[in-house]
Amino acid sequence: MALRAEDGKKPPHRTFFSSTGGGRVRLRTLINLRWLAVAGQSASLFLVYFALAYPLPFLHCAAVILASVVLNIALALHYAASQRLSNREATFYLAFDVAQLGALLYFTGGITNPFALMFLAPVVIAATSLNLSNTMILVFCAFGAVSVIGMWHEPLPWPEAESLMLPPLYQVGIWSALVLGIGFTAVYAWRIASESARMSAGLSATQLALSRERRMASIGALATAAAHELGTPLSTIAVVARELERVLPENSPEIEDARLLREQAERCRAIIARLAHPEEDMLGGIARLPLGAFLDDIARHHRCEDVEVLVRMVAVREDDMVPQVWRVPELVHGLGNILENAVDFAQSRVTLEARWDGSELYVTMDDDGPGFAPEILEVLGEPYVTSRPGHHAPGETTMMPDAPIDGHEGMGLGFFIAKVLLEQTGGLVQATNPPGGGARVAISWARGVIDGPEPLISTDVE
């Protein structure tokens, strides 16, 4: 039980400089941000040159700002307003912003200019919207620009009667602060954005899985209603067919038709009888079952020749009544998914044990497999985490926002979906490696949540 997450195809490999991506960056957003930068740069340039009368290469700075204006106009004319950029295109345009800012700072003091802090803007935009490889390209572009203008730059605009010469050691400190700030901010922003995207995609897959279970429940309820409605006419057909068999002569050519009609009517009655009790073959409508019968019903779908699944019931006091739990989709799918995972990794046995007392109800699943990898226990329950053969190395997490949600199974979502669904029922899920070996997943509920008189379960996945 190395990871305890569903297996499947390995996510597509992403090249270092990817031209394909999720299209998460709108061109209009970059254009608007660039117009904002142009407005700020122009205001600063006019203020310093005309209002404060500080000497600076005005025409050179204006040409650099004009380059951004020309690019914005060209993009607005060439692309539609709703255009979404690929990772490669967004990286190119953000790299242009880094170069433009570097050129402007070259003419106005380099890293001694307080506005050198604006290098953070394109890097943060890349970190929150692009993949890691393209984000690192922007980070290295920013590092390069900071380093170049740190060594070569025009003097900082200052009153002619005064002079400001920062010591070289202080300038090295400014360079170090910019490099560390850009690096730390980029990594932190990318990490937060990637976790948010993975969680959003995982929750979408969870909602899809739950909706499938609900559709099964609706089908079961519809089948039960249809069986009830069809029962009476089929009984009438069967009675008429028997009467025809009784009154027709044995050698009559119509008696075979009457016998066939009766047999088919009986067959239809048998089919709708099974539909009237869908819990024997499918999820069916919500019902209340003894805890032992509920767990055994889940276990029977995962028993196989290689692995034995045992169900044990342990009461703290002998006079305690067996809890009656609600057979709702969240419990069926959540417990079934974890049990399926345990069976996949077990060598020969999985033990499904239920305990209860006056305050809590516990369900534990133990298997005799290899147990959880230590590095996996730290991230177990997060979406898109898997270490099955053919997948990423244990502990490696992968953000796959482009993966189709409909194909969620096999992408490290099994344990995540099960955990989310069980937590929606008020359960607490914990995974450990017991001292005797193997792996253990324990779920606990307060009494009255899943075994109360009413199904007190919130099914809205937030």
Mean pLDDT over all positions: 79
What is the percentage of strand-forming residues? 5-15%
Strand segment count: 9
Helix content: 40-55%
Order of helices and strands: EHHEHHHHHEHEEHEEHHEE
What characterizes the major β-sheet? 5 strands, mixed
What does this structure look like?
This protein has 462 residues and is an alpha+beta fold. It has three domains: 184 residues, no CATH class; 64 residues; 159 residues, Histidine kinase-like ATPase, C-terminal domain (Heat Shock Protein 90, 2-Layer Sandwich). The chain is built from eleven helices and nine strands. It has a five-stranded mixed β-sheet with strand order 4-6-7-9-8. A two-stranded antiparallel ribbon has the order 1-2. Strand 6 and strand 7 form a beta hairpin. Helix 3 runs antiparallel to helix 4. It is elongated, with a radius of gyration of 34 Å.
Summarize the structure.
It contains 11 helices and 9 strands. With 462 residues, the chain is of the alpha+beta class.
Give short descriptive properties of this protein.
462 residues; alpha+beta; 11 helices; elongated
Fold blueprint:
Elements: E1 25-26, H1 27-51, H2 58-78, E2 84-85, H3 87-106, H4 120-129, H5 132-151, H6 168-247, H7 255-275, E3 288-290, H8 291-299, E4 308-315, E5 324-326, H9 329-345, E6 349-356, E7 360-367, H10 374-377, H11 414-424, E8 428-432, E9 439-446
Parallel strand pairs: 4-6
Antiparallel strand pairs: 1-2, 3-5, 6-7, 7-9, 8-9
